[in-house]
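Subject: ATP-binding cassette domain-containing protein structure
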Amino acid sequence: MIKVNNLNKIFNENTKKEFHALKDINIQIQTSSCVILKGVSGSGKSTLLSILGALSKPSSGDVIINNDSIAKLPDLHSSLFRAKNLGFIFQSYNLFNELNVEENISIPLVPLGFSQKEINQKVQTALNLANIEHKKDETVSNLSGGEKQRTAIARALVNNPDIILCDEPTANLDNANSLKFIEVIKKLKELNKTIIIATHDPIFDNLDFVDNTINIKDGCICE
Ligand SMILES: Nc1ncnc2c1ncn2[C@@H]1O[C@H](COP(=O)(O)OP(=O)(O)O)[C@@H](O)[C@H]1O
Ligand SMILES: [Mg+2]
């Protein structure tokens, strides 16, 4: 379970540019559930995801993931925590264009000290899950948008994380590729992953495997 307790994020605190981006957020996300975090641009979705993903620290309050306090993790532990537990799928794919698909996918495994044989097995599993096996030797710069996204998905899955965080995952995809993305999410849900998708894309409305939609507006969670 993920518990968000009285979470606040204030940018540029105590300056003229002070901005209260997240206001007293309290949410609970059940293990193995799929949750949509819905809100217009600027509502605080990415800020919340980055704190959930231990990429940034809250100004006050805390996030508890499997009994670990994200706010109190020292930076070194944050990166290890991410490597073990979390997969990120961003709107921009953040891939290395000059490397091939397989090389990009294996990158998160490097700090974890696996053997080459283990790496190959894990990469193979991720390639299959994300339906990008057939392009594994292709240089990323030669891929279509949908293929780049499936490579990014495979990279997010390669460490077999329990929690998958997606930030506007369909923003750069056409309808056909968005539907393929939803099929991958459905498979992940069947694998009992906890999935959080920040989006304002109506394609995520009324999907049968979505357990909960959390609406965020001006940094507040609306009932
Ligand atoms: N590093 C930052 N410094 C100052 N303001 C920021 C920073 N990051 C985000 N914000 C502000 O916080 C608000 C929420 O941003 P964000 O979480 O990116 O929204 P969303 O992802 O829903 O579009 C916006 O008004 C944005 O300008
Ligand atoms: Mg955003």
